[in-house]
Protein 1
Amino acid sequence: MGTDPQYVGKLHSDLDKGDNLVKYTLSGEGVGSIFTVEPTTGDIHALRSLDREEKPYYTLRAQAVDVLTGRPLEPESEFIIKVQDINDNEPKFLEGPYSASVPEMSPIGVIKIALPNMDREVKETYQVLIQAKDMGGQLGGLAGTTIVNITLTDVNDNPPRFAKSIFHLRVPESAPVGSSVGRIKAHDLDLGKNAEVEYSIVPGDSSSMFDIYTDEHTQEGIVVLRKPLDYENRKAYSFKVEASNPHLDSRFMHLGPYKDSATVKVSVLDVDEPPVFSRSFYNMETYEDTPMGIVIGAVTAEDLDVGDSPIRYSIEWKKDAENYFDIDPVEGTITTSEALDRERAAKHNITVVATKVNNPLLYSRVSVTISVLDVNEFPPELSHPYEAFVCEDAKVGQVIEILSATDRDMPHVGHRFFFKSPRDIRNRNFTIRDYGNNTAGVVTRKAGFWRREKSMYLVPVVVEDSGYPIQSSTGTLSVRVCACDDGGSVLSCSAEAVFLAMGLSTGALVAILLCMLILLVMVVLYVALKRHKKKDALMSSKEDVRDNVIHYDDEGGGEEDTNAFDIGTLRNPKALQETPPRRDVQLEAELDLDSEDNEDIRAYIQQRLQENHTSTSAPPYDSLATYAYEGEGSVAESLSSIESWVLDAEEDYRSIQDWGPRFKTLAGIFSQRESTQGAEKRPENKGSNPRAEGSEEQPD
């Protein structure tokens, strides 16, 4: 369009008479920068070029105003300016240059291949120029170009190939098993997994000595040693190796086999080696009582090198380990240097070192295990302290316990124990039955056991072993007699067992006993308090007067004879009946108050009764006064004349001497009385009773 404004259009109002009194104004998008208007004519011009691809249309507003007054002549109007398209843009490739790939050897496809069998190994990348035209390629149209980079991708169309047919490797004979001997490589022109190579050793004479695997990073074959080498036995090995592709493409199998082979020759290098023991380890045995200096075994090592150097033997010293053995440095014989004890250490592990005299830096070690054999020095014992029980209703031949034994000695092939009862003890209650399998049963020899007669039995058991010499010991089995139910289950073996069988623990049993004790104390206190209140009630009245006959006698019961009588006894006529009779005196006469001898007693009682009836100080109720309990609690009971029994004149009082030393005087009085009466009767009854003369007994 150039630099001149481009006419776009014209504004015109019907009120414009051409007298230049109308002014046109323009507002909206791009006014002033893109569009302008001539105020008097209304012509609209574009100040610069418009691009439809940038903005396709513009919206503007126009108005006509009076030049003189400046007032609008008509309302503002809106219009749109559309930008028309012209062919001013050539075609463009938005993402160029482009990259593409196609497998080598591909047939015709989207991208036409000009050459057949395009091989990536010959040329891998190609560059193609592509042009695009608009207007359908007509004259005047615009064009755009871009570049497409085409890469041929790899396919497995090449087999691996060794660079040479023979590979030479060398390895020292001292190389350890698993170490690398050398590397070989078969080249494959392909890429990625198509170039992966697998190596294998073809079975043959030397194939068992070596192995080969692939290095994943370099695709090389690493030859490793599978077995130890010995230069003195064999100096060279030869074997064949094959290389092949693990991933094959069936489209190219017609090109030939995808593998190759080569020969590997390995030369063994001679190395000065340490001595070699005849065994990899040694096992020896000796008895624990073997004297010191006795040979228990020997080790042997030799130098396999050509020089055949002499060998010297030694025992490797270990810190904090006792040395029980010595070794001959030349012969390699091992002897004991200290006494051995199997119970302290059943095995000893030592390390023997063999050193070459010609080269002391070369040495080898071997482990020697020395087992200490057992000497039968300990007797067998019961495996643990046994405590058995037997039911009171046990039958003959009933097994009540199974026994087993242990032995601190170590036999060669298992323990063998024998059980029996001691020969010098004959047990009539139990016997021992050996089952022949290192166990025995305790069997009853009688039926029925009584716990009250004997609650526990001690049964001796003799246990013997089968060693040499035979060792034995005697153990004791405790057998408790218990009460059992019909099924043979223990009900109780003691008082404590009864409670435990009821499910009560020791703590619960103590608590129950404590509660019972507290209850008993409360009952005793209650009874004592009740008696005390009853006594206070009887003594509460000052008018409660009663007579007490207190009699003191030199040979009486002491304080027991001064025991006054409670009014409660007077109100309880049964008290006299409940008084227990004396066991040491058998009464031969009953008290008969109706007899003439008791006339004074009746008179005395009637007098006292009359006084109580007429006395104004007597209690306002009937009461019984009795005087028959002085001296209650004494061995001789009361000595009161009121309560004294009326005895026949012929009563024998010699039993009074059995009442104790306090009645010596009383017994003497009665003895003297009998002597006097006997003297008076002798003139009348001469020769009647010879025992009357000798019936007097003097007190001790």
Note: The longest helix spans residues 506-539.
Protein 2
Amino acid sequence: MIPKLLKLLHASTPKMQHVVLKTLYVITQKTKLKDNWNPNLVDKLCKAVVPFVKKEQSNMREYTYGILANLLPFEHATDVFTSLGIDDVPEDIITSAHMETDDNLKERLRELKKYLNKPSSECEVSMITNTEPPGSKKHGKQEKLKDEVHVDAEMPATVPVEESGLTESSHVQPIDPIVSTSPKARKWYQISDRWRQQLEKLANIDDCKVIKVGNLMFVEDDEFRIAKGSDGTEVFLGLRDDGTEVAVKRMTKSNYQVLKNEEGFLRLPELDDPLIVRYVDFAEDDDFGYLGLQLCEYTLEEYIKCDFPEDGLSELRRELANQFLKSLSILHRQNPHILHRDIKPQNVLIDIQKRARLADFGISRRLPKGQTTHRTSSAGTKCWKAKETLDEDEDDVAYKRSTDIQVAGMLIYYILSGGHHPFGKGVRCEGNILDGVYNLDKVQDVVAKDLIEQMINEDPTKRPKVEECLAHPFFWSNDRRVEYLRNIGNEKEVQNFQNADKDLISALDQYAAQGQFNAWKHKFPPALVQQMDGKKPYPENTFGLLRFIRNALLRR
């Protein structure tokens, strides 16, 4: 079966490749590797799956590393890992492991990382299989080993066995991971830098101070509270039973539907993406609902105002803006589309990798099938609402993708300006949104201003779609910008720059920021201009500039 799957792996679509990797993960997890497989098969399997560690799809990478982790008990597997350049498991892979699909996957990835990071003299496989009958010497040794270390028996694999061709009656059994834990400390896998001190205290705090609900635990104390909402919602630092760091979002039963709505969206496979905050767990008691979410380091508001690096501001801010728009595009490209409806700096989180993740889907809505509008009561946060939602009856507001876009434009300005709002602040902010009065002086980049002005246009029909925002020249690389200018310089009208239509030149110069390119020669080294001008100097208009750039690039 394995050879057939390996042939299929490199001759199929990405969707099928994901299915094959998932199936191989289940097989390697449940098969008694040492008894049934030979070195050649392990070697072929490793070489076939290792290329997928470089795939962009996070789930493919997770299952690839999971397969390698399952191969650890095989005697020669680690030699193969080394020969193929596998010397670590990236932290983002462990952070994003699909716990809904298989609780053991994250555990196995950590075991592999721990093994690979050890010196070679210390590397020992920390997985066991009990295949000897009771009473045998080997069985006695295994029982003794199990008494000395913690084996998490409450973490069964939840990947559907049917997908791999195995059934419950199959003779193969899963391999249980061995995880060492302190008898006095709770299990905790440290990832966060910002919250490390509090989490260490949480992992060792007395049981009498801990609130335990489902698989989640936290302490109801200001020291561990990381956010508080006006509606009674609170967010606490927490740990899951398997040691995963979480943000525990607690909401009263009066707002229970909002919490369940957020859980529903976050559990959608379509929203499983590195740019969306990850769902971890859910629990409830008589008074509250609890949503366990991936723990991040900062809100965008905190990051921009308090922890943003001093160097490389423009490029970092450009990347943050790009990541945010990509996260919004994940919602808007669904069929039917999903509207966020509560975009603001507090609802974009920054993870340990300094990556922006869109969060808080409590009031998000999916458009009715075949519709472009969703009508509900007013939603959102003051000063972070689109004009059309302020201008309507609060009980019957029409929401479209363009509604998200205007608020997204406000947030793009907030990022690029270092924390400012294009429509001002205080009591006049929403009035300015209604009147279309804005100020973009805190951003100097004219290309960035062009993007923002399109997005915050008071006419919803003139706002670009999120895909068009991402395609805007503001996000182009320098190489792409140069190539674009080169291509424009080859256009027929530009080639005829010496005798171009005067009305066309006048219109183009007026559109190009009030003719700011009329003195463009002063921006270039005099020696280059003299060399390029020759007998027929380039005219100091936009056409002359474009042709000058094109010819200068050809001479490089």
Note: The CA atoms of residues 161 and 168 lie 8 Å apart.
Protein 3
Amino acid sequence: MFSKPRNLKHLAKLYRYLLLITLVSIILLSYYTINQKLPIITSKSKNAHIFNTPGCSIPNLSITNAKIRKLIYDMPPIVCNEGVGPLFQSDFISIHLLHDALSTYNVTSDNLDCCYQYFKRRCPNNDEKDTQIDFEECVQFTNDFLIDKNKDFVKIECRSRDDTTQMIYEDYFASISLKPIENQDNDYTTNEDQLNVLILGIDAVSRMNLHRQMPKTVEYLQELQAVEMLGYNKIGDNSFPNLIVMLSGHNETELNNACRPTDDSFYDDCEFIWDKFKSNGYITAFGEDTANIGLFTYERRGFHEQPTDYYYNHFDFIAENNVGNTKFSGINQCIGSRARYEVLLDYVSNYAITMNENKRKHFGYFWTTSLTHDYLNMAKLGDDSYRNWLSGLELNDTALILMSDHGMRFGEFRNTYQGVLEDRLPFLFVVLPEWYRKKHSEAYNNLKINRERLITLYDVHQTLLHLSDVKNYQKTNKNSLGISLFEEISNKRTCDDAGIDPHWCTCKESNALSPDHPEIIKVVNFTLNEHINALLKQYDECYNLLLNVILDGRHFVSNSNVNYEDYTVTFRTIPGGGIFEATVRKYNDSNEYNLLGTISRLNLYGNQSKCVHDVYAKLFCYCKK
């Protein structure tokens, strides 16, 4: 009579055991899903496409195929200051004399006469650019000194007491002062789900060239469980039309119409992503290692008031101008005895360390250009430095975005079909802390899904808005131009849906046509006469351009339901030898032509266009004088 209860007791025990096994399995599966290393698609992949969705198929070309192998080679190392090392060194707290270097400068510590001089940005007057600097008095010191905690930048100059008229050493150092916090201890800065955000850019590096040139950096990113966005497609020619979308959410025309009425206007009335973070109590920072050709200062006025709490650019302006050296294609690679990009990397590390030690939520946007802007193979020289920089970051409370804006835009490599694609497909990695990936597993899983979706910097902007206010973020409409990468993006998304002009779209298949094909000749003549020379008519100081030779023509495979054909052409003009690329649409019913997007210049113009200052006209102008 007791058998039935014993069976029930046995079944209950068995049920609890099976439940425990199921829960453990779910936990282990979740941990594996969150922590697994995502596969990296490289030249070893056998797939014909990087990914293939109903909306977009991007070709998967080898990173070392035979047609480009001759263009991949080792560059000579950067030797700063002709091999002469520094006389002083900074640990961001103090600056001290390197005694072993005294003999190099033919001086002893007894007859060394040095002073330090703090300097800072000054707001420009209405007729000035955003490059103004104020210096304080030069203070004498012996051997070393502590950096004032309220100062960011300092200059050192030294003379020999034997000849005080001759400066024997000059150097510049950047540090991080502690600035007052606005909106301290609000709902954002005290919310653990609000991550610090660091963005670091490496200019002009395609996704494939990062794998080709910087394998150590890629490998370490994989160790960090970084999510690589395989379908990241650029939306404009150069840095500005791409990055301005990420920073503001608007294209250049929209931004100018909204807050910059004239070409001489500052950018103060424009709202950028750092303003959103700052209004939520974050400390903000912005810096570029080539401020002389910076995003807001190359043929532009920059800002009147300082845009962020920490603004590195004025340090780079003065240091590069006075002790810059080792010029590659017009860009100084060094500040004194230090590589220019490494100086900025050290600054970013110090910024993150200082903010973390003082428990301050922070946002930082930094861009390195000097090493990679002009040469396909220079990135390899920075592989160790970028990898070591990554390994030194404390990322437990930080979202890191490592990215580029476009691939190599000019040169022999760019003239290949692979170069065309790589220009349009820069790299983008997103790193999130492990605890955040677990707590926000749905968002993280969407991020992993989106690695095989077509995305743009409109989406990155929306992602930054998401990170700036995780608690109150409202999901975007699935048809929006920008969608947070923490929301699933449709696999049916096309270039049109994402706001990518056909000229930049990598989703369409194309076929090569002969340069003497009648349609290619018509497209070239239309581009040259109706656009390039029509623009140059506004500039009396520029020559009218003539066709020299058609170099390439491609026809894009179109949907049978459309009444147009798209063509991309590449051609050289004279005088000046400019090489241009354009995508043009021909409407079959009217035989009319329409330029799609902008015209790209595929070789450097150098000083050919120094007589004009409009950034677009510079691409085409060959000055008469």
Note: The CA atoms of residues 22 and 230 lie 35 Å apart.
Protein 4
Amino acid sequence: MRSQRYIPVFASLLLLAAADAGPVPATAQSEALCGSLDIPCRTTATSEVDFPAPVVVDDHLKLLPPPERKLRLSTKSRYLVPDEDSSAQSWRDRTDDNVPLRTAWESKQLRSGNRQEASTCKVVNVQLLARHGTRNPNGSDLKQYLDLRTKLATTYTPPPPPAGHKYSFLTNFTAPCDFAMTGMLTTQGEVDSFELGRRLKEKYAHLVSDVGRIEWQTTNVSRTITSGRAFQQGLFAHKHDQDVAFSSLQTSIFPNHQDPILRPYDCCKRYENATENPPLPLPGTTFAQRRYPAIIARLARDALLHDLTIHDVTIMFKLCAFEYTIQGKEAGFCSLFTDEELALNDFAVDLNLNYYRAYGLEGDVNEWLACPLLTKIFGGFDETIAAGSRRGGGTPNHPMAAFRFGHAETLTPLISTLGLFRDPHSPKGIQPHWTDEQIKARVFRGAEFSPFGGNFIFELLECPASQELDHPQRHHIANDRKTYKVRALVGEQPVVIPGCEGREACPIHLLKQALAGKIGCDFDGKCQNF
């Protein structure tokens, strides 16, 4: 029997399926697009029916040993854990059944500039935006999985043994979840978030020792709230601190259309207008129409899978992604595809991500959509700087850390607002006509900056003023003995923000200059919310 484990906070909450976060209106046209092209839809069945949404972990699938194949699956990818050994040990200590833990599947390249100057500074404020951990597929995906299973059960005959054993699952495969648990956090997702909290506790112990000086925020979706709760359990050893933090997390929740910090796409009429009637076919479809027929032909030859459509293959790729990320399963749908074919699907999904959330959308909406979030982050930094000044002006007991939990649709606009992961020779980002060489060499990768459990960290660094004595606009405090810089990390690894002159530790005045118009902007005015 399948079990459902509830973190014991809401004893009597009704279990509802949380809708996938996203702004695309639920017209008949967009529903069809959402189903076939992996685009999030806004539907009427939102998680705001329960306010706050329930805290739920679907743990009916046990984790398998870490997979051997190293797969990038766009925003359905596994998180690249920087330190796999310590992660595995702490999660086993926390659980009763010694569940096998996934580990990092590749060593991540640092994408940073000069690291030496950051080593002479200390972190005095940290701001995190984390995507929820690994989740179940949404309801529209699940329906398509079941439709595919029905089609294959009635039309498919595997090759004779022994080759046919590899494909026998196609006539009776099991979907990753049922409709009651669509969109919910999984055991792997709980691991993702708990381990992130544990790692940040080790790194920023001096900033998180006082639970009363931490700011929290989450969207009103079960998987983000549950991810936040698991993160807090990794961050704090004592139940009292966990409960205090979770109470603060609950009170931070805004209705979707009133949350420009974590759901700007739901609060911006200009964005809604820009995405309501997208040009068809979308970039991912154009690419699939060009490249997937060869995959269909190979599957017909090798697996005797005849009469497959591009839509069928797209669903098979999705099933591969969820089997791989939720459970670490490689013997199912992922076994149908070569690594090269999976790389093509990774690119196809990235094409639509770039169009809707990053650089491909007409106009510049996605390049300032994260303005409310950046304004909040830099407001926290300014408060810390003022509090550290001998001239005063700061708020007593000001927050020393802020932890926020959102979606891929929250992380990606932040990336594009900062100008990160933008391919230098393509202002509109990745394109469907690109060659295999261009696809392989591209900078824009959802698997890199927005996998399940992906995160973005801003550190405010207090540094010796001697590093900036040549710059008249530095912040002077404590008789000019200090100056402030900001370091950004994607997936817990440093990156250099455009406009920072190649410096990992970017002087705050220089970063604010680079982000002029994106901090403190008139969001309602730019969004034409009137």
Note: The two ends are 52 Å apart (CA to CA).
